[in-house]
Design a protein that fits this description.
The complex is a heterodimer.
Chain A: H1 2-32, H2 39-56, H3 61-84, H4 92-114, E1 130-132, E2 135-137, H5 139-161, H6 163-173, H7 175-180, H8 185-210, H9 217-232, H10 237-258, H11 265-277
Antiparallel strand pairs in A: 1-2
Helix pairs in contact in A: 1-5, 1-8, 1-9, 1-10, 2-3, 2-4, 2-8, 2-9, 3-8, 5-6, 5-8, 6-8, 9-10, 9-11, 10-11
Chain B: H1 2-19, H2 23-46, H3 56-72, E1 74-77, E2 83-86, H4 91-115, H5 118-138, H6 140-143, E3 156-159, E4 163-166, H7 170-192, H8 195-205, H9 207-212, H10 217-243, H11 253-266, H12 273-288, H13 294-311, H14 316-327
Antiparallel strand pairs in B: 1-2, 3-4
The chains are: A mainly alpha, B mainly alpha.
């Protein structure tokens, strides 16, 4: 039983960052209809920004997180302006392949600049974990959970309470009508991609110090993000949050009770199962997919 | 005209081992040839049914593992105390089994494509490939996991009256790959020009219309997926018996991307496209090796993929064919142009 509680606690920490990843991707996928393969590299990018700010510049750990979010925002906006805006109106396969090309180039760039050796980040948190009865959790992981929860809340408010968010939701529903109503759809696309990218960078900056940082770390993260988006349904932010926690739970239980080698298989199994049995996602209203 | 070009191209390719003595270049040509076969099989799905399979390497890898395990033998435990024991069979049998096993997997993936299309099909195929990779990595008793399957025997061709010819040298393998590639090319060419091929293209161009004239969507897509996967499995088997060592890295996503780049750059929906694109991108690393670090090469790879999509979105072969047709004064487009994404429904 105590083992199960420990898995639940781990699930909470992991699920928070997964939710961040999922929200970013579901916004981009839902609003722009772009299968964003650069999402994983933005995650890696965020983690490296953390590494640069903390280890190479020796600056404060808590300062590094907003820097990573901002850097992710800028890189996302740059990708959207240079690669996606010229291809507006071309089919989804073309933009997907362009994103794959960008992903390969950027990942190889990361490998070229920082090498393949995994990096770690020193954190200001005490080594000794917080022990609560049968479960223990490190202070770093608690901070990760709190920061992720705060970012999820900020994104939720941004989408639901601001005029930018209203324009984004309108574009998601029908971009032609939104455009007719005076919404600058191009600007919405760039903002959406930038916001989604900054969330991926934030997830990387948060999980990077928990694990280690290496150029390919984003690959699995990207697939997990796709799993979350499919679980939660396209463009569904609440679905992405719940999906993030479901995936984290499946991984924790899979690693704990099946085999740790198959931990990362859980996301893929979920993708296949959901798409076979309920392709619109678990929380979506009836809607045709594909 | 087209037949003459094809025969000349085949003759040129067949003459290569006679004058090229550099084993490094010959090796690059063999592995390129194997990937060209994979790219041709991918083109059957991507170019003629419009379904982008980004897990295509799974069929290739399954073919490689099935072929290797058939010719090496194995002794693996199953849940419930059963044991799966197999004594080695000749590699030729492995080659056939690789085709069958990959085709069977293609059948299941093809069935899935009935439920999900577009981006979702892409994600399902990626997931499928990753699950297979993780099984190959973790089922150590069967696959040796990261330790790799080693000492895979070379393919031996039984020659009636002469015993066996073991294809061990690079020259042997070059001709083996060339023959298999030629068979795959002719098979795909025959297929896309048949009634079935027209059904596939009809589906790609306008599914609603195709269904209304009685084309069975699931059946057509499933058959295409089975044949495509089987050819990829054959390529995987060739790879296993040529390289003679297989580890789970064969399933790496980048290998699928390599095939996709070959198809897109050469021209999807064109028969010669994957061959042209495959030769360019298979040999590009060889040409870049003296001037660029491997990481920089991959950056160039990604950059070239983006550039092709921006500059030549239809691919090299269709663009050239169109230009050629225009210069001859014919207003009609080359036949390949018909298969391009002319009449896609708006998303």
């Amino acid at each position: 039983m105590s083992e199960f509680l420990q898995h639940l606690v781990n699930m909470l920490v992991l699920g928070g960052t997964y939710a961040l990843l999922g929200i970013g991707l579901t916004l981009i996928f839902g609003i722009m209809n772009v299968v964003n393969f650069t999402h994983g590299i933005l995650y890696t990018f965020g983690a490296y920004i953390m590494f640069i700010v903390v280890q190479q510049f020796g600056l404060n750990f808590f300062l590094a997180l907003p820097v990573a979010v901002l850097a992710g925002w800028l890189l996302g906006a740059a990708i959207e302006l240079t690669l996606l805006r010229p291809l507006r109106g071309s089919d989804i396969d073309t933009t997907m392949l362009v994103m794959i090309g960008a992903w390969i180039a950027m990942q190889s760039g990361t490998l070229w600049i920082w090498g393949g050796v995994a990096k770690s980040v020193t954190t200001p948190f005490p080594e000794a974990p917080l022990v609560l009865g049968p479960v223990s959790v490190s202070w770093l992981r608690l901070f990760v959970l709190a920061a992720a929860a705060m970012l999820i809340l900020v994104t939720y408010l941004l989408i639901n309470k601001t005029s930018l968010g209203r324009a984004m939701r309108a574009t998601f529903q029908d971009h032609d009508t939104a455009s007719l109503m005076g919404v600058n759809v191009d600007m919405i696309y760039t903002s959406t991609f930038a916001i989604g990218s900054s969330l991926a960078a934030a997830a990387g900056a948060l999980l990077g110090p928990v694990y280690v940082i290496f150029p390919q770390m984003g690959d699995l993260a990207a697939v997990k993000a796709f799993a979350i988006v499919i679980l939660g349904g396209l463009g569904n932010i609440t679905g992405a949050v719940i999906g993030g926690f479901i995936l984290a739970l499946a991984e924790e239980l899979g690693a704990g009770y099946v085999s740790s080698g198959y931990r990362d298989a859980m996301g893929f199994v979920i993708i296949i199962a959901v798409l076979i049995f309920k392709p619109t996602g678990l929380f979506a209203r009836a809607e045709r997919v594909g | 005209m087209r037949i003459v070009v094809t025969i000349l191209a085949v003759a040129a390719l067949a003459s290569v081992p006679l004058w090229l003595r550099d084993p490094y270049l010959l090796n690059a040509l063999i592995t390129t040839g194997i990937f060209v076969i994979g790219a041709m099989s991918l083109n059957l799905l991507l170019g003629f049914t419009g379904q982008l399979s980004l897990g295509h390497i799974a069929f290739f890898g399954i073919g490689a593992y099935v072929s290797a395990l058939t010719s090496l033998g194995f002794d693996a435990g199953l849940p419930g105390g059963f044991r799966l024991v197999h004594t080695p069979w000749p590699p030729v049998v492995g080659f056939v089994l690789a085709i069958l096993a990959a085709g069977l997997c293609g059948y299941f993936v093809g069935l899935l494509s009935f439920r999900v299309r577009g981006a979702y099909f892409v994600i399902v195929t990626i997931s499928f490939a990753e699950v297979v990779r993780l099984v190959a990595l973790n089922w150590v008793e069967l696959t040796q996991g990261p330790l790799a399957l080693t000492n895979i025997p070379s393919i031996a061709l039984p020659l009636p009256g002469f015993g066996e010819l073991t294809l061990r040298t690079k020259m042997h393998n070059y001709y083996l790959v060339l023959v298999v590639a030629l068979i795959a090319y002719l098979l795909i060419a025959r297929l896309v020009r048949s009634h079935f091929g027209r059904a596939m293209r009809g589906l790609m161009e306008n599914e609603t219309l195709a269904v209304s004239v009685g084309i069975d969507v699931t059946r057509t897509l499933t058959i295409a997926a089975v044949i495509s996967a089987a050819i990829a499995g054959a390529a995987g088997s060739l790879y296993a018996h040529y390289i003679r060592i297989i580890d789970p890295e064969v399933f790496a996503f980048i290998n699928t991307v390599t095939m996709v780049i070959m198809v897109i750059s050469g021209g999807k929906g064109s028969l010669a496209g994957p061959v042209v694109g495959g030769l360019i991108f298979g040999l590009l690393p060889v040409a870049l090796r003296p001037v660029m670090a491997p990481e920089a090469q991959w950056i160039a790879y990604g950059g070239v993929l983006i550039a092709i999509l921006f500059v030549l979105p239809r691919g090299i072969v269709p663009s050239l064919a169109q230009r050629f047709a225009r210069r001859r004064g014919t207003t009609a487009l080359a036949p390949v142009a018909l298969t391009e994404t002319g009449a896609k429904e708006p998303a």
